Amino acid sequence: MMFKHNLMVSLMAALCAVTVMVFGILNPTGANASGLEKKVVIYSTHGESLLEAVADAFEQETRVKVDFINLKGELADRVRAEKANPMSDVMFGAPSSVFIELKSEHLFDKYVPSWADQINPLFKDAGGYWFGTIQTPVLMFYNSEMISGQDAPKDWQDLIKPQYKNQLVFRNALSSSARATYSSLLQQYEKQNDLESGWRFLKAVDANTKRYYGSGSLQFQAVGRKEAAISFAVLNSVFDNKIKNHLPLEIIDAKSGSPVITDGIALIKGAKHPNAGKAFIDFAGSAKIQSMLANKFNRLPTHPAAIANSPAWMAAVKFKVMDVDWGALSSKQSGWMQKWDEQVKNTGKDKK
Fold first, then answer.
1. Which of 69, 100, 137, 320 is the most buried (most CB within 10 A)?
2. Is residue 71 located within the same domain as residue 189?
């Protein structure tokens, strides 16, 4: 009996060894039992701490290792440069205009995540190539210790009024939110076949602008120190500074609406770890993870179920959405912002 038992054990061990060997041959990427590769590579514009939080949660749930690189403004160019030999599997973060542009260059593979039908069409590609995980409204705000709500601007057009001379501070066009905002404002004039008036408007705004900042923290510090009363920024940054830094800030619901940037996610065409990439997309956009990012990082979800389990201000805040054709804007934004940088920024006279 003992001999038979030992023989059976030896046969089972040999069978397992053969199975492992064959599995390795059939799955050269090292896929695990669920069909996922052993790692996934993420290119992103999100901050390190946010990426680490999502990566750690994904690794814990799937045992798939996440390699992520924060590329900021270089992300799109990196994906383009690697078109023939992609080094990443997923693009996570950047405005929808960038996703639209890269989709037109055939840099994504179609993949519709499990949560796709839960989100508003405003936050996703109708063709199924990219989907929004974070909505990022850009709103004007003001220091309520410097001006009252009655005296604050009611719309973007008010920024050129004489009473706001040297009362404005903004980000420069290196900021994705600023690029989106300046371009969105120009598009409103283009729709009326009067783009030149849009450029005159931005020059008039520049004449009232005290300073542009390359850093969001310096921008908010300037408003907090009362160097200027009015600015614009992504909504979560306004609430971050209002709640955590106790700055006396109030948002402005512009009459003509405010641009809403959608941070997206997509599967890179020709990804070396496509199954793990798809699993990451399913995971990162789920209500569970969107809610986690809302509570830990003040990011406003696109998923309705996530908003229900997010900080109270996210469900309470109301704002009008500006009518922006992000698809049309994607091909013009770079050229417009180069012109803004060369012909608008700091061209106003009598600036102090």
1. 137
2. no
Q: How many CA atoms lie within 13 A of 311 on its CB side?
A: 15
Classify each residue of 36-59 as buried b or exposed e, where b means 16 or more C-beta atoms within 10 Å of its C-beta. Answer: bbebbbbbbbbeeebbebbbebbe
296, 333: one domain: no
pTM of the predicted model as reported, rounded to 2 decimal places: 0.80
Cα–Cα distance list, 139 to 178, 180, 234 (Å):
11, 12, 6
For residue 301, count CB atoms less than 10 angstroms from its CB and return exposed for 0-12, middle for 13-18, buried for 19 or more: buried
Instruction: Mention every residue, 6+ apart, whose C-beta is less than 8 A from residue 56.
Output: none
Helix (H, G, I), strand (E, B) or coil at 109: strand
Which residues constitute the domain of residue 291? Answer: 11-135+262-316
Question: pLDDT digits over 299-337, tens only?
Answer: 999 999 999 999 999 999 999 999 999 989 988 988 999
Would 350 be classed as within a structural domain?
Answer: no
Cα distance between residue 342 and residue 145, in whole Å: 34
**C-alpha distance from residue 285 to each of 134, 135, 170, 262, 266 (Å):** 9, 12, 31, 13, 11
pLDDT band at 136 (very low <50, low <70, confident <90, very high): very high
Residue 3 domain-assigned (yes or no): no
Query: Are residues 84 and 143 both part of a single domain?
Result: no
The CATH number of whichever domain residue 114 belongs to comes to 3.40.190.10
Helix (H) or strand (E) holding 266: strand 260-268
User: Among 106, 91, 88, which Cα is nearest to 271's?
Assistant: 88
Q: Do 196 and 267 fall within a single domain?
A: no
pLDDT on residue 73: 75
- Assess contact for 209 and 182: CB atoms under 8 A: no
